[in-house]
Amino acid sequence: MPIVSISLNDEILSEIDKLQKTMGFSGRSEIIRAGIRNLVSEEKQTANLSGSIHAILMVVHDEESEQVVTGIKHNHEDLIGTHLHSKVDGNKCMELFLLHGDAEKIGTMTKDFKTNRKMENVKLVAM
Length: 127
Hints:
Number of domains: 2
Largest sheet: 4 strands, antiparallel
Oligomer: single chain
Mean pLDDT: 93
């Protein structure tokens, strides 16, 4: 099996160690493999969407990233039926987008958020 080296900050490493204890993973590598399998599965599911769809996109970010969110939102405003913004904890914000439109365009919007390092969590639920 090939070996891949990655760098993690102390905060992420601490979270991995907590997951290992609470979920019973055998080690850090197993947690990282599970995370990668989950990401691959989500991306396959998104890639298989086609036609006109309805979807909910949730984005969690810190307050300082509000301009980034606004920029992405304006680039895809033709898809957004409803947008809810809520401050959820300290300086964290959660955005909920109710989307309707072309699956490929919704996939692009989701990717724009997922590939931005300032976003803490991005989740798409599509119908």
